[in-house]
Design goal:
115 residues, 2 domains, 5 helices
Length: 115
């Protein structure tokens, strides 16, 4: 086998492997006008990514609300202020954990459920 034949074979093998990996993640079959059944990779939707982001944000706000309800407003503010005095990463955490209207609303709902 010459070098050019080997290169052509190698390119074909890489193309087949790439198509196989795409098809292994899901495929849709269709029939061509000549009767040939063809499998095409299923397109991924961004809906799953958006859904994951919404779930992550929901969990974060619920966590903040429950933590605010558990600690109380004063202790929660003290801990956030302690984070503000720390490193850059801690300051970013303080910004994320600072109470916002949604967190305060969730906290009030949790307090009313517990008591």
């Amino acid at each position: 086998m010459s070098a050019s034949q080997f290169d052509e074979f190698d390119r074909r093998m890489r193309r087949i492997s790439k198509r196989h990996s795409k098809l292994s993640q899901g495929y849709v079959t269709s029939v061509n006008p000549d009767g040939l059944v063809v499998a095409k990779p299923q397109r991924r939707s961004r809906r799953g990514t958006i859904r994951g982001l919404v779930i992550l944000l929901t969990v974060m706000f619920v966590f903040k609300g429950v933590l605010h309800a558990q600690l109380g407003a004063g202790a929660y503010e003290d801990r956030v202020n302690a984070l503000k005095a720390g490193s850059v990463v801690e300051q970013a955490g303080a910004w994320v954990m600072s109470p916002d209207p949604l967190t305060l609303w969730i906290s009030s709902q949790v307090v009313s459920l517990v008591r």
